[in-house]
Amino acid sequence: MTRILLLGGTTEASALAKTLAGAGMDAVFSYAGRTAHPVSQPLPTRVGGFGGIEGFAAYLEAENITHVVDATHPFAAQMSSNAVHACEAAGVPLCAFERPAWQAGEGDQWLHTDSIEEAVNALPDTPARVFLAIGKQNLTQFAAKPQHHYLLRLVDAPEADLPLPHTTVEIARGPFDAAGDTALLQRHAITHVVAKNAGGAGAAAKLTAARNLALPVIMIGRPEVPQRPVMGSVAEVMAWLSHPAA
């Protein structure tokens, strides 16, 4: 019997969950627990970590998981790495369901960086107004440049004081559109955009807005994860579930 663990938190994961549920397949949807009110899913859902690689492998065995699909955020590198190693240890096949990275086009002013630290260093020394479109997990590093005013767009309101002295927080959940994001950048007089190269259509509007306003974008490249099969569509994942050895 096939029993699938779907590591979610992305629009791709939600689309796959809908297909799995519609096909009547035995699957569990797993959220990392980073947001207070995650999107409800048509599958049995668990929230939280697994306790590292050993805990993950133990979960796979205890729950009789036969296949794992990693559809987490492209920057959830620790979870993706743990999943690969846990599946190797448990002998469970794994694939990733991953959206393509964004590519700069005509009119874009992108500066590519390989890490959060490089992105911090790429910001100017003179005060600027920065749309920090990276979520809430990596804000501390930007405290190294406290002279800037940072605009944050978060799914949940912060539960504690932010590590940045000058911030404005907008609470919103995507997908977003170019007209709305252009108005957002204009309303806050943004001069720079910092983004993780997450890919996907739901969060690309800020890049179109930056292009429309001729604003520079500091683009943080994706972290490396262990090699694994990567699928680009729900159809590819469903075919892999039928023939994971391929």
Overview of this protein structure:
There is one protein chain. The chain is 29% helix and 22% strand. It has helices at residues 11-22, 52-62, 77-90, 116-122, 178-187, 205-212, 234-242, and strands at residues 4-7, 27-31, 45-47, 67-70, 94-97, 109-113, 129-133, 149-154, 167-171, 192-196, 216-220, 230-231. The protein is built from seven helices and twelve strands. It has a six-stranded parallel β-sheet with strand order 3-2-1-4-5-12, with helices on both faces. A six-stranded parallel β-sheet has the order 6-11-10-7-8-9. The protein has 246 residues and is of the alpha/beta class. The protein is elongated and about 60 Å long. Helix 2 (52-62) packs across helix 3. It starts with a strand and ends with a helix. The mean pLDDT is 94.
Given the helix and strand composition, which structural class is it?
alpha/beta
Q: Which geometry do the CA atoms define?
A: elongated
**Got a strand count?**
12
Strand content: 15-25%
From the alpha carbons, calculate the radius of gyration and give it in angstroms: 19 Å
Biggest beta sheet attributes: 6 strands, parallel
Strand order of the largest sheet: 3-2-1-4-5-12
- Proportion of residues in helical segments: 25-40%
- Cα distance spanning the termini: 19 Å
> Low-confidence parts, pLDDT < 50 over ≥5 residues?
none
Query: What is the overall pLDDT average?
Result: 94
How are helices and strands ordered from N to C?
EHEEHEHEEHEEEHEHEEH
